[in-house]
Design a protein that fits this description.
Layout (H helix, E strand, L loop, with lengths): L1 H13 L15 E6 L7 H15 L2 E6 L7 H4 L4 E4 L8 H12 L3 E5 L12 E2 L3 E2 L8 H7 L1 E2 L8 E2 L3 E7 L13 E6 L2 E2 L2 E2 L4 E7 L10 E10 L2 E6 L5 H4 L2 H16 L18 E7 L18 E7 L14 E4 L10 H12 L3 E5 L10 H8 L1 E2 L12 E12 L12 E9 L2 E2 L4 E5 L8 E5 L6 E5 L5 H4 L2 H14 L3
Parallel strand pairs: 1-2, 1-3, 3-4, 4-15, 16-17, 16-18, 18-19, 19-26
Antiparallel strand pairs: 5-6, 7-12, 8-11, 9-10, 9-13, 13-14, 14-15, 20-23, 21-22, 21-24, 24-25, 25-26
Helix pairs in contact: 2-7
Bound molecules: zinc ion (2 copies).
């Protein structure tokens, strides 16, 4: 009996059904595997950037391995191109064979900065620009793929002082260079005295100035190479994040990855990491009168469909806002007397003109004596001092509460109930006819903590959460604010 079970298990193990890669990759995108995790450079900060650049273009599906040693033909198989941000010890024969076969079989390889250094005759380098003192037997094929190796013999391969310099494209016809400016500026190391292999195709060079103890030559920095049926793109640039976060590095790298993978380039000459849609909602964010953490501004970053300018009151309202903005977001605290009559008129004309208005958190206490504002426009007021008919409102910091979105509105559609750590308000006056968006049952808070005002001329939203970093950094809160802006702009 037990022999039969064992046999069945063995048969089952031998027949594990393969699952196609397509279930795990984005359709139609170039599949990139970045090799990193050991480098004398700060790979911990540069690798995320190398990934982000590619992801931001929408052209690539990117994975990262921090332990390239042990990769096999099977693990490399789904990918179109490897990006090496690696400068450490050898990977071992099975992995090295797999990489050789991957590239020679017709796929791509991209080598960034110190990625050209390892596997040669020079000593293995360690973290933080250190030396291990260990010499390993060279992996000859790596040098053949890269098209260059380093040498400790004179003239030594290396670089003079890091400085700012121009990189000039030499072959403007090549797909990686076509359509881009003839040169670009960056601050980087300028590698010199590579031992180049015959057959490489130099794309860009820079002058290694004797003024910074360079060799006085025009040094090749970007080049391509063929290895079997595969394509290799090498960039000597990218010493650190400052070198990488320049338009010249970013575009040449991304275009080089696309070319190595496909032999073509469709990416633009400039890669915008924070692109805005042409029809992005134009938002005026008004601050002032209430301190807040700088994390607040992160709420508005990275959205393609909103473009935000910040201006403090009262100067934010000095001009007619109707032409310049679609939505005003108030995250300020200001009283009526502090806003000159003309400024108040501009604000009034804006909200009467069919635009959008978002009242965030403490801005519910604005303009206590401007009754039209809080009664008609906002539909509510944090009552600073008790007055006949209005109890004083109260606040409490650092409350853990549960916020429940009300379904049935575009702003809250599909948003789950959420745990917040925020400030609560109690006894905030609001009109009975507001359309409630958010509720909580926390005893220190009012039930209604977000609403749409019944005001007819413009779309007005109030959101009570948003005191500090915990909410500012929460994707749920950011989405809530973004949706409120889009909805109030009529999108
Ligand atoms: Zn470097
Ligand atoms: Zn607050």
């Amino acid at each position: 009996m037990s022999r039969i079970v064992a046999l069945l298990c063995l048969t089952a193990a031998a027949q594990v059904t393969p699952v196609p890669d397509k279930f795990y990759f984005e359709e139609g995108k170039i599949r990139v595997l970045i090799l990193t995790g050991r480098n004398n450079h700060d790979w911990r900060s540069t690798t995320p950037y190398l990934r982000e650049v590619l992801q931001s273009t929408g052209r690539f599906d990117v994975r990262v391995t921090e332990e390239p040693s042990g990769l096999s033909a099977a693990t490399l198989k789904p990918y179109d191109v490897l990006v090496s941000n690696y400068c450490g010890p050898r990977w071992g024969a099975p992995t090295e064979r797999a990489v050789e076969e991957f590239v020679s079989g017709g796929k791509g390889l991209v080598v960034v900065h110190a990625g050209s250094y390892p596997f040669g005759e020079t000593a293995v380098l360690s973290e933080r620009m250190g030396r291990t003192g260990v010499y390993q037997k060279p992996w000859i094929e790596w040098g053949k793929m890269v098209g260059a190796v380093w040498s400790d013999k004179e003239p030594r391969t290396g670089h003079a002082q890091r400085h700012a310099y121009q990189v000039s494209w030499e072959d403007k016809e090549h797909p990686i260079a076509a359509g881009v400016a003839s040169s670009f500026l960056l601050s980087d190391e300028l590698y010199h005295n590579f031992r180049l292999k015959p057959g490489i195709h130099v794309l860009a060079t820079a002058f290694d100035s004797p003024k910074i103890r360079g060799n006085g030559k025009q040094e090749p920095l970007l080049w391509t190479n063929a290895y079997g049926k595969g394509r290799m793109f090498h960039t000597a640039l990218g010493h650190d994040l400052d070198a990488m976060r320049t338009p010249g590095f970013t575009a040449s790298y991304a275009r080089g990855v696309e070319w190595a993978a496909t032999a073509k380039v469709s990416l633009p000459a400039l890669i915008d990491l924070n692109p805005k849609n042409r029809d992005a909602v134009r938002v005026l964010l008004v601050s002032g009168g209430h301190d807040h953490e700088s994390s607040f501004y992160g709420v508005f970053e990275k959205w393609r469909d909103i473009r935000v300018n910040v201006d403090p009151h009262p100067v934010a309202f000095r001009n007619d806002l109707r032409k310049q903005y679609d939505v005003v977001v108030l995250y300020d605290t200001i009283q009526t007397e502090a806003l000159p009559e003309k400024h108040r008129q501009n604000l009034r004309e804006f909200v009467e003109s069919g635009k959008g208005l978002i009242i965030l958190h403490h801005a519910i206490a604005d303009f206590q004596s401007w009754e039209w504002w809080w009664k008609e426009v906002v539909g509510g007021r944090y009552v600073l001092r008790a007055e006949p008919g209005y109890e004083a409102s109260k606040y409490l910091h650092d409350v853990e509460l549960v916020a429940t979105p009300k379904p049935g509105h575009a702003i809250t559609k599909g948003l789950p109930q959420m745990r917040l750590f925020d400030e609560t308000y109690k006894q905030v006056w609001h009109r009975a006819d507001v359309q409630v968006l958010l509720t909580t049952d926390h005893p220190t808070s009012d039930v209604e903590i977000g609403w749409v005002s019944p005001y007819q001329n413009s779309r007005v939203v109030y959101l009570q959460p948003g005191h500090g970093r915990e909410s500012h950094e929460q994707p749920w809160f950011r989405q809530l604010v973004r949706r409120s802006i889009l909805w109030s702009a009529g999108r």
